[in-house]
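Contributing: when you submit paired examples, paste them exactly as shown. First protein:
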Amino acid sequence: MLHGDWRAPELSGETFGNFGRRWLDAGLGRVGAPLAPRTRELYEGHWKLWLEPHFGDVALGALTPERWRSWFVEQTSKKPDSTQPGKAYKLARVILNQAVDDGLIRSNPCHIKGAGRDRSPERPIATPGQVANIAGAIEQRYRAMVLLAAYCSLRFGELAGLRRRDIDVLHRTVRVERQAIELAGGRIEFTKPKAESMRTVAIPSPLMSALEAHVAAYVGPEPSALVFTSANGLPMRRTQFVHTWRRACRRAGVEPIHFHDLRGSGATWAAQTGATVAELMQRLGHRTPTVAMQYQHATLERDQAIAARLGDLMQLESETRSNVLPLDGH
């Protein structure tokens, strides 16, 4: 009490379930910003499935690092290939950080090293030929969408939120300033993406021609008309489009690949053309180099090409200075 760091024990007696529910109901994320609707739904799912059943009745003061560690080891052992326990752990850490800030507990017991890191499996990289085959196998109204996802690295929600006024034919660019989010029950909500995701992306010239043809055939004349819609003219829903996508992939003989893999494939192609990390960050709409670098996948063909070029350098050096690096093994 003399040092000023004493806390009344009844403060930490509130249950994790009660405090976590109040935090979720407040709907505020980092720096007090409101949670996006889809993020809130995901948090609710993690809370109800992973956290509340195990810790709902436990007092905040009784939550120890050992208790969280035992839970995490148990859940990851049951589901070794799932990323959900890690996501739930990250949510618990955020909630308990708030409890620390509110003075209810002295420190956050969630500090297991590496527990909150996403360990999603490496996704496949499609070749330009495979993307062309899928675009040729899918319904005509979605061909430009497939190509735009790959060659401009747009997310599904960003594509579903594009409007006619976002396409600049003169400068061959597409402006990303909104996204379509599918909520529970199939409801679509159009929202602004994160600030760093709002961007203008240059469109390759051959793709511009395909996009212009698509706009002429399928998009209404008003500036606010959606660029991509379902067959009945309604906003795109990921849960419905996935069936169309899988059918096209089977026809094209390209499996297994997700629609979102087109974004990573295009980013990898851009990196292989010599794009810098900063340029990739701008094109992808990322705020940190670490996230952008995740899309710079190394491929065997590329690595072999690099090795071949390095071999040429070695050979050239050997020819000009034969005494530096003998290449015959002697």
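Second protein:
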Amino acid sequence: MSHAANVQIDDLNAYMGDLGQRARAASRALAAATTATKDAALQAIAGDLDRIRDELMAENRRDLDTGAAKGLDAALLDRLELSQARIDGMIEGLRQIATLPDPIGEIFDLRFRPSGIQVGRMRVPLGVVGIIYESRPNVTADAAALCLKSGNATVLRGGSEAFHSNQAIAASIQRGLQLAGLPADAVQVLATTDRAAVDSMITMPEHIDVIIPRGGKGLIERISSNARVPVIKHLHGICHVYVDDEADPNKAFDVALNAKTQRYGTCNTMETLLVNETIADDFLPHLAAAYIDEGVELRGCEQTCKILRDHCVAASASDWDEEYLAPILSIAVVPNIDGAMAHIARHGSMHTESIVTENISKARRFLREVDASSVMVNASTRFADGFEYGLGAEIGISTDKFHVRGPVGLDGLTSVKFIVLGDGHIRE
């Protein structure tokens, strides 16, 4: 069964305007929806996805065949594929989000003022969230579920290579919404692969309140530079671990090895190791042997290359600014914590930075002075993740400073407003 065909370019402005208006209207209904209704919708979508497995697989097969014919590489085709296990994962994700606490309507910081009024803050939805992403069709279900639970309508634009898969998932989501009594327009997936639709999405602040791009650095830079709608983004993750001269060597070994080798292709993987010069001669050879056993290529500063001799190549100036996403590691020997923090300030991407030290004063300095969305003491950078932080699920990791920073869970998809409680109070 084929879903919505590509909308023709001559319809595009009218199509996007209509879609935006319907999303805005749906956002008002969603903002008023109870937790029970939103959770019922999530469970209904999970049930519908389970019911249409065969259809999902057939639509995904169309995308895979088209992608193979266009010469997509094996890694992209793997990300695109919807196996039974990945469909299970989508369904499980929806059901897990249904069990998370609902942030909407939460009142906090309520306190009496001298006038007798009470002033507090309430958590509210952002409104309409636009999400632009590449290849993986499971993002369609994940993103829609997080936006739905946080009371936001969402407009989704997946990669053109996953068009048929995304349309099938979108139809399933809309059936689930209607079953629960919510407007189908609360989740809309663009029915066009025209790139001009993205330009429309990011320049219609009257219809869309925030844009979240998920994909490669090129996509995110293009959207950030052209958007007239606020963007929640992270460009890249150049994460550092600094091993201090007062580090426990066993902790330092474990943290530095895990931060690089637990998984290579993630934004919270360490790309540069910084080692205090006092301990470098003793510490580095032992650790380098473990990296080499794992197949990691080492690129070092002049001092690192002297210590490791044949096991390390000289790092170029560009290596310190490189997000490898691969078994390659840059290593620099630094004089002290100030040298480490200066290196991070110059080359870091404000994602995740970690210090290994037993000195509480240095740990506190590092936490206070290092400018990143996550700063850690004696822990692997691989912990920078919504699930590990107890957020239940995340839509991405923001390296921005407004309006949300670090892993973006349900709370990150909300805003707050001031509320005032009085009893006939008037200002004197």
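If you have annotations for the second protein, write them as plain sentences, like these:
The longest strand covers residues 118-125.
The mean pLDDT is 94.
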